[in-house]
Fold this protein.
Amino acid sequence: MHCLSTAIPDVMILEPQVFRDERGFFMEVFHEEKFAALGLPTRFVQDNHSASRRGVLRGLHYQVRQAQGKL
């Protein structure tokens, strides 16, 4: 996550890293620890965004310790 300052006090531009491949793209839009490191503490944990080209099926990897839900 890149944080860019603006001419307006306390207004920042946050640029997530986008991972692209032949299936589409994936990016982590929000991550609690990374935002806290930028001085933006909150209680929301993580939000991701992905898009796939036609015919691609994506899913979650099975996890016991850090379970995830997907909308």
Notes: Residues 21 and 52 are 10 Å apart (CA to CA). Residues 2-52 form one domain. The helical segments are 32-37.
